[in-house]
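Input:
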Amino acid sequence: MNGLSFSGLSGVLVLAAYAVVMLAIGWWAGRGTTSSSARSYYLSGGGLGFVALFFTLYATQYSGNSIVGYAPEAYRSGFSWWQSVPFMVAVIATYLLFAPRLYVVAKREGFITPTDWVRHRFGSGKLTVLVAVLMLWGLANYLLEQLVAMGQGIAGLTGATIPYEVGVIAFVLVMLIYSWSGGMRAVALTDVMQGIALLVGVGVLLFGALYLVGGDLGAVTTALAETDPEKVAVPETAVSVEWLSMIVLIGLGASVYPHAIQRIYAARSERTLKRSLAVMAWMPLLTTAVVFVVGIAGTQLFPGLSEDDSEQLVGMIANQVAGINVVFYLMMILLFGGVVAAIVSTADSALLAFSSVVSRDVYGRYLGRDASEKRQVLVGKVAGVAAIAVLLVIAWNPPGTLYEIFVLKFELIVQLAPVFILGLYWRRMAAGPTFWGMLAGALLSGGLTLAGVDDFGGVPGGLVGLAVNVLICVLGSLAVGRPGDHPSEDPVPRLTAAASRS
Amino acid sequence: MDRRRSDEPQTAEPPTAEPGPAPGDARPLREPVRNPWLWAAMAVVVLAGVPLYLPVGTIRPLVGGVPWWLLISVGATIAFCALTCWACLRAWNLAEPAEEAAAARERDEEVRP
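Output:
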């Protein structure tokens, strides 16, 4: 994104303004948070209301990649990239498989990390260690992706006036300061600002792209049908299979991300949680669908781009729109501010979840069993800073396309789905087979990736691994488990009994 | 199988009220996972949106410049959003009645100490 007509000092100023606002919100939010209580620091005391919960779900689920990575994907794939809309809806639909019951159990038992559920259900054995390892791996990968995107976004916004590395370090410091001081409360409240910035950014990007194509999307698709019919036609069977697979993979994978599960724990009430998710069900139409339209418009605005060049599509469109007049110029400043805010909001949530797993599930369980809660929280904070430092070193050499690393992290995270979705309902599910299934699924998925085998006729390696995982888990549990091995987590009899007592 | 530990540290405040439906709350307890029709409908709208069942390579007819198959997919996605939203609001009612009743009791106590 070099040579932007709207780059330079104004870009630096808008980023500086964003940073100041984030710090101010973080400072304000952090006043009521105490670092001596893990529940207060990591879950905001379990008291997030509708506005904060909705925006933190939104800003966390949609990162900057949802704009700068998905528009080029629509550009390259054509209409088959409409899949990005249903696979984002699938994340919310998958929540319905486990969040209602997990919310009740989590409030009753006082869970803080996702691993708390696994420990409650299966005991403190090797399965909880494997779950914690997979979560930390997935979160680290997720953070790395955000750091790479952050640098590219900032360098793009300022026309490299702020170099990639300086931009990343500056915003990482801002993020660390408000996360350190305010925990989940600061993260959620900055997410409100960041979510609004993302929505505004997506809106102005659509407006700009439509302006450039003369407002006639029908003409764009008609022309695309003439020039690139394969991008418009019903896709080949393998692509459609991949489409369906992505709905399953991302639906299962994104909903069991540690920071996603912690938002279930952090909800003030069931009413707040389900209303937030009900609105979230519509957000793909306002976000990834809009980005899809922008990518398709890009096929006519900048035809014939190579894969690497197409990664700069959003910057190219923004550059052209900004050159029209000062109003469009200001709108594109908003867009890139929104992109950076979206990246930071996703990164801070992943960082907080990473810290909580290290603090509670690694340090609190194994290294510092006798440590006070305050010390555990402090260790989690320090571990988060250390992880960021290591990831920054890796981020200096970013991989090729953002989308590829996005898919890779799902290959392993999706292996966690059975312990949440099956574990809540199936009392016979046993820890041993669950461990071996998860390990086999993770090794198979990772091995396929290392071997360069992306998919089998459109089915990603992660889903193949998940199938093996579930098979081992189910068959093994049928062999060694007994129906009464675990107390029922069914809340309905308990709730009904409570009602009859009252 | 690992045995469940009974010595887990309790990190949360003790629950203030046993969850359960509020007296007089007529809404039945509902859990989305228990509703087979919901998941059948979910499967239908998801599968209807994936063009697996359509002839590969088809573009026309165009409706307003947009291929008909994409319009089907867009329609199915909107149905998927609507169904998911409906399920969140109407097919899920576990802790809300008790939480609302507890909140109402707290409000009453504040008014009449």
